[in-house]
Write a structure and sequence with these properties.
Elements lengths: L1 E6 L4 E6 L4 H10 L7 E4 L6 H12 L3 E5 L2 E5 L7 E2 L1 H4 L9 H8 L1 E5 L12 H9 L3 E5 L2 E5 L6 E3 L1 E2 L2 E2 L1 H12 L2 E7 L5 H12 L3 E3 L5 E7 L10 E4 L4 H14 L1 E6 L7 H9 L4 E3 L3 E5 L8 E3 L11 H7 L6 E5 L9 H7 L3 E5 L2 E5 L8 E3 L3 H13 L3 E5 L2 H4 L5 H7 L3 E6 H7 L1
Parallel strand pairs: 2-17, 3-16, 6-7, 10-13, 20-21, 24-25
Antiparallel strand pairs: 1-25, 1-26, 3-5, 4-5, 7-9, 8-9, 11-12, 13-15, 14-15, 17-19, 18-19, 21-23, 22-23
Length: 432
């Protein structure tokens, strides 16, 4: 099992290029189930564990796949398996995104209840509610969701107690693309990844309107409507969470870092926070330059649905706020239990505690290198950033979580001057 060994205290300098979006790529890869002819997807972060899991699920469903550097060529037959098995689906919550396209294209879907990061309760009831609103018959049996079509256009409401569901919106959009007639999704998520899915559906001939707003209208083409489609090429958007993580790393570790191949407008909530706490930020057309500082001002922040501050950057920001002179608050309004990194930050000497859904960060303590354990994808990034800030050596164990969503983070940080090594512990044991 891999771990990161970080020697802190090195300022980061230079340019880092953002990879294609993980959260944007996963639903679109599953959307390939809608397309019978050749499909070429470009800018795919193919070295991510979640991407590899997705491609294996697609192969299990009969897809013919050829991987090249940052490109995936896919061809999916109309007839084929309809079951996404527990062995693969349990590794990644986004596997539920196979549900809508399978149902739309093959008229039936059997999908294991998904796994993924342990960041709190994330039910899929809104996904099921959406499919039922489109006419699907859905039942649970032995840990699997079974659904049958045919699908017909309908009106769907997708906002839940914690706000709109991003994956649920994308899943229902892809199901609606293969339904007969017009579907209206109310309470839709407005995240850029939803707009990316809409752009993909338009590329394969589906009329989609209103993405980026709470109401999306889709003109379904029916189960056989994609029969003659092929030769489609589509470019994945850059990863806004990776971009934000490197902005925070640059601010935390000192020096000056330019994050390239990003869309600054998608990270304006973070950029505004960085500016408020005293981090110099220069915004370019497709880049953001961040200059590190020794101290930052305290702030009161809440995670919110887009365009608010994203929950996926809550952990990384928490590490940076350890540099404050004063007390900062981060209230988690998307996943109230997403604070497993707090106990690990305390191992660095950070003064952090949790009250309800709010983390309280008392700055002023110098972080010291420590042996820590990553518990989920974004918590991993939090601990890496803390390791860059800390004095001495840090070991971040179980970075397979991080490798699910950050492509070559150790190499990218080394290119900026960070002393970060990825160690294969099993290989070391064999050498010994």
């Amino acid at each position: 099992m891999d771990k990161f060994v970080i020697k802190g205290g090195n300022a980061l300098h230079g340019k880092v290029r953002v990879s294609g979006s993980k959260n944007g790529s996963l639903p679109i890869l599953f959307g390939s189930l809608l397309v019978p002819g050749p499909l070429l997807l470009k800018g795919v972060p193919t070295r991510l564990r979640d991407i590899k899991t997705t491609l294996n699920i697609l192969r299990e469903l009969g897809a013919q796949i050829e991987e090249r550097d940052q490109q995936v060529a896919i061809e999916v037959p109309t007839e084929g398996p309809v079951t996404a098995t527990h062995e693969l689906v349990s590794k990644m919550r986004a596997s539920i995104s196979s549900f809508g396209p399978l149902l739309a294209r093959r008229g039936e879907a059997v999908v294991s209840l998904p796994g993924g990061c342990n960041i709190g309760d994330r039910p899929i009831d809104l996904h099921i509610q959406g499919m039922e609103a489109l006419g699907a018959e859905v039942r649970y049996e032995n840990g699997y969701i079974h659904a049958r079509g045919p699908l017909r256009g309908g009106r769907v409401y997708l906002a839940g107690p914690m706000g709109p569901t991003v994956l649920g919106t994308q899943n229902v959009m892809m199901a609606a693309a293969g339904a007969e007639g017009v579907s209206i999704i109310e309470g839709a998520a407005c995240e850029p990844e939803v707009c990316g899915t809409a752009k993909f559906l338009r590329a394969i001939g589906v009329v989609v309107e209103g993405d980026g707003s709470p109401t999306i209208r889709i003109e379904g083409v029916g189960q056989d409507g994609f029969a003659n489609l092929g030769g489609v090429s589509f470019e994945m958007p850059p990863d806004r969470i990776e971009a934000g993580s490197y902005m925070i790393a640059g601010a935390a570790a000192g020096g000056q870092v330019t994050v390239e191949n990003c869309r600054p407008n998608e990270n304006m909530a973070l950029i505004s926070i960085l500016q408020k706490i005293g981090v110099p930020v220069e915004i370019g057309e497709d880049s953001v330059t961040v200059t590190g500082v020794d101290k930052v001002s305290p702030i009161d922040v809440a995670t919110l649905a887009y365009p608010g501050f994203p929950t996926d950057l809550q952990g990384p920001l928490m590490a940076l706020l350890c540099k404050t002179e004063g007390v900062s608050l981060i209230t988690e309004k998307i996943f109230p239990d997403r604070f497993t990194h707090l106990s690990e930050l305390r191992r660095f000497g950070a003064k952090v505690r949790k009250e309800g859904s709010t983390a309280i960060i008392e700055g002023g303590s110098k972080l010291q290198g420590a042996e820590v354990m990553a518990s989920d994808l974004r918590a991993s990034a939090c601990l890496v950033i803390a390791g860059l800030m800390a004095e001495g050596e840090t070991h971040v164990n179980r970075v397979y979580h991080l490798q699910r969503g950050y492509e070559d983070m150790d190499k990218k940080l080394r290119s900026l001057g960070g002393d970060v090594q990825c160690i294969d512990e099993a290989a070391l044991e064999k050498q010994e």
